[in-house]
Each structure stands twice: as C-alpha cells, then as structure tokens.
From TrEMBL:
Sequence ranges of Low complexity compositional bias: 370-385
Pfam families, per database record: PrsW-protease
GO molecular function list: peptidase activity
Classification via InterPro entries: PrsW (IPR026898)
Superkingdom, natural source: Archaea
Origin species: Halobacterium salinarum (strain ATCC 700922 / JCM 11081 / NRC-1) (Halobacterium halobium)
UniProt name for this protein: PrsW family protein
Region (Disordered) location: 362-385
Amino acid sequence: MRKTGHMTADQDPVQRAADDDMDLYDVVTWEPRSRLDYAATWLYNALGTGLRPGVLVVAALIIVAQFATATGLVFFDRPVVGAYVLLSVAPALAVAGYIWLADATGQEPIELLVATFVFGFLFAGFAAAINAMSSVVLFGSSDPMTGSTAVATSALFYFLVVGPVEEIVKWLAVRLYVFRSDEFDTVVDGAVYGAMAGLGFATVENAIYILREVMSVMQTAGGQQATEVAFQVAALRTLAGPGHVIYSAFAGYYLGLAKFNPDDAGPIVVKGLVTATLIHATYNTAVTNLKPVAEFVGVAQGVAFLVFVIAYDGVFLAVLGKKLRAYRAAYNHTGASAVAAHAATWDGDTLKPAVRRIADDGVGVDPEDYSAASSAPPAESTEES
C-alpha cells in the first residue's frame, strides 16, 4: 500500500492514533524499563560526558609528543627562541582582534575565547599527525618528483589532505565546545570563535616549525647560528599565521549561520568548510610554486612571497570584513540592536516575540519607536478562547 498525504516526522502514525493508556513500549514508544535499557542509557550518557575530555587528552598527548620530538629543551636553553615564537603570531593576533572588534553584537566572554584558542592549539596535533602520514604515502618514494608531476602531486596534497584536515580540526575546535554555549547566540559569533581557533592553531604550528629548524641547526652548527635561524623562520611564519585566522573565520561564520538555520545546517556547514579549504589550499599551492614565478618576474623570492601573502590575505580579509559589515548593517537596520539594548532589563521570554516581530517586519524599524513600545507592559489578550 502506498503512503498517501503528508505526515510529519514528530510522531509515528500509530502514536498519533493510539489512546494515551495503550502501552506501546518498544513498538513505537520507548523509555528505560529493562536492565538493557538502563545500561544503554548509562553508556550513552557516559560517552557523551567523556568524549570531549577524552579527545582533549589525546590531543594534548600528541602535542606534547610533537614538542618533545621537535624541540627537546631548547626553550630552556634559549628563551629568545620562545620570544620569537610569540612574535611570530603577533599579526595573526591582530587579525583575530580585528574580527573580534567587528562583532556588532558585543564582545564575547574572555573565558570562551581562551577556551577556543586552547582547543585550536591542541587540535593542531591531529592535523599534524594526519598530514605527516599522508605525506609519507604521497612523497615517501625514493625518487623525488620534478616538473609538472611535483606541482600536481603537491596540489593534490594541499587540496585533498592539508586544506580539508586543518580546516576541519579548527572547525571542531569551535563545534565541540563553544558552539553549545548560550553565549554563541549570533551568526557572527562563529567568525569570532573561528578566528580564535585559527589563532591557537597558528601558534602551535609556528612553534613547531621554528623549533624544528633550531634543533636541526644546533646539531650541525653553533648556538648563535641557531638563534639566527630561529629569527629567519619566525619572520617567515609571521606572514603565514594570519591566513589560519582568516580561513577558519570563514568556516566559523557559516557554522554560526548553520546554527540559526537548522533546516539547512548541513549544506551551510559544508559550504563554510569548502570555502575555507579552497582558500587555504590555493594559498599553499601558490606559495609552494612561487619560486619560478619570482624568477620569471625578476624579483627576489622573499619579496615575491611578501607581496603575495599580503595581497592574498588582504583580499580575503576584505571579503570577510564585508560580510561582518553586512551583518552589522542588518543588525542596526532591523532594530535588533535596540532589542539587545533592552536585554539587560527585560526577561528573555518577553524579548523573543519582539525580536521575531522586528525581524519579520524587516526594514523601516526605528529603534526609538521600539524603545518606547518595549517600555510599556504587554497588553492583555482580548481574543476569545
């Protein structure tokens, strides 16, 4: 028999038709009754409670192992190297600060910003491990690749491995914690927290790159040369850091958009991750193959790198800034800013209908008109029941 008509997914047809006193346990309804039911409930709660701490523990162990392998005790022997690491993330911090200040709805709690930074810092270990294993598969042959083969292979590596993996782990740094918070209450919050996850990721990536080079030089040359190398690599990584913040801010923005559009959340999240991945992988591919372009143009590779990074990141930061300004304009134009201004003095349940009314009415809302209307008590309903 074919189904006819339209049925909602809230209840099974038997549930809708059955009497309240009919016992349909394990047929179309369920609640814990048997020992197996209670065991399943306990296991589900245990997994839900322990999953995120477990992931954090594993991530922390990976990061510790990477630092131990790459750096030894170099921080203690040469604290100036640690200063170079901190300086290398200063531009990325500035970009994250710009995105934070561009949030029209107010500044996010510092503790959540720090927590997201920590998640991004720790989750970088997952990306590094996956990238390393994938690199062995693609580039582990004894015969080095040259020419177009090398270009194509590196592009595949960036577009299919590095870009997706790194953007997904930064996205998870937001999704697994702060996304669940009541403070994540606007679309643009996604961009802010995405930027902080990118900042944490860039910090640990810069540190590992710098310290690996320092350790390599210290094994073959003197300590002074190692310090010089640390400065050179830090200068290079200074330009790489802002990109991570920008890419993950895009993915975070669309995560925020998905939170408030649950019917289309999946495609919206995918759009954000694909956007961040394409920007990221294109950057990596271009930088890897920048040398022949610089030689063709007749400029030093360092100059070409500097010009390219500033231009590339500048373009996408401008695109992101345009999205944030569009949100700010809508926030002010719809009167949502007036709603937020009264949030401290009115109960949330009173405000929600006003928010919906203002958003539904769209344009032409005068915040002063809303202020006057909201200062009066709600009128009693005169409708007959």
